[in-house]
Amino acid sequence: MLFNEIVDVYENVDSTTKTLEKVSILSEFLKKIPKEELKGVVLLLRGNIYPEHDSRELGLGAKLVVKAISQVSGFNSEEIEDKWKDLGDLGLVAEKLIVKKVQSTLFQDELTTGRVIKTLRKIVEQEGSGSVDRKIKMLSDLFSDANSKESKYLVRIVLGILRIGLGEGALRDSISGAFNVSKEGVEYAYNLLNDFSEVASIAKERGDSGLKEVGVCVGKGIKAMLAQKVSSIEEGFERVGGTAGFEYKYDGFRLQVHKDGDKIRLLTRSLEDVSAQFPELVKSLRESIKVDKAVIEGEAVGFDPETKKYVAFQNISQRIKRKYDIEHTAERFPVELNLFDALYMDGETLINRPYRFRRELLEKNVKTEHKRIVLAKCLVTSDKNKAHAFYESALKDGQEGLMIKNLDAPYKPGSRVGHMVKLKPVMESLDLVIVGAEWGTGKRANWLSSFELACRDVESGEFLGIGKMGTGVKEKDEEGISFAQLTEMLKDLIINSEGRIVKIKPKIVIEVAYEEIQRSPSYGSGFALRFPRLLRLREDRDPEGIDDLTRVRELFESQRNR
Which of 29, 111, 421, 525 has the fewest CB atoms found within 10 Å of its own CB? Predict the structure, then answer.
């Protein structure tokens, strides 16, 4: 399929704000796609070159894209950057300048979707000496054969900012409409496969029956089941039933463990593979899990190597991104994996089994190891006094609170369901993404500050502003997350500058506390956080998993009862 055909779809989808119109456009488009090209087309509709479960990234910064545009257009980098400042979108710059190519177009080839994906994947694979020049050359070759509109969307795909208002809900409904399958079936399969391209292929070839047959696949990440919030033990009982399972809510990060023989994969909640960063867990899990194949969930919690007492998440968060000196870091920041659920064991997908059954199976098939592989502390009771005492015990141990679970409920990947709730003693924080900032002045002149935060609109996939934050970031590294550290993480993600104000590619997720949520016409979400402050980086999470607009509305409404 020619790339300009999907570019036309981008234009049509982006031209309307109505979700039903977007769905109609996509449904009609998907019906016409041959099965051998369907997967690639669906990937590009999301602005991706890999499925959602694949954590590989293109890794091309805006400066490199500017160089590629320069090579093809004949304009120098300074001219391109000036134009970028005027238009605020490097894609629009490419659209206006690429049409004035200096390279001969006599032998220009038309771009296909297959070639775009193949070339961009080859760019990902480039390593070592000369890799930057090779990346620029391959990207320039694409621009050389692209027309002006194709150039605009190539830039946006490369920078990860396609933004045509196409969220998971709209793509789900489009696949449903195109292949006459249920929305529920599409969502069920997607939550297990984390790959809309595969789901679309199954829907086209095998229909609803094929979607229903999708099960847990060892080695491929599953969307985590999420919990709603309650404000008391009593409310927890009301939501999940008369007798409930109470588990410690640990102050750590969620890990999904995939065991296939001797092979162990550890995935974060955002499905990033961190197996290499936790070699001690990988080694212990090989021995601890008694079955040959399994997918189980747990929470990794840090503890002090001397006192053995639990420590806050921020103390161990650096281990998630650590690429070097891993063994020494593991000794300094050890973790204990607290297992709490089983999703698959030896040939059986367990997500439709009741929680009590899954927990029993977990207990039977895991051999614990002190301060390394343990079972999450759990109490099954209908006694409110015992539940309150267990809650106080969790807080005394330095944990966040409790998870409260319906004993007869299934596991619902990707859902915030009423049969699993969480209880914490403070007002709920929000996981948000940084989408903008401002260069400081005076002694902060080289640092970014006044960070613009955004939540997510699930339907459109857009990131909507919800306030600016400057509190909680420290002057010095040893005091916590510093301005210098955040600046270092964000500077390569800058996609536009206007004076001291910069727009940032949504990538860095942070947990934010606040005093109150207020209505505000100043931000895209319609809300603003009052006195937001940084609690911690959430390096275990990605922008797709941050809190959404529905959650913000729920918290806003709940303030009335405080």
Answer: 29
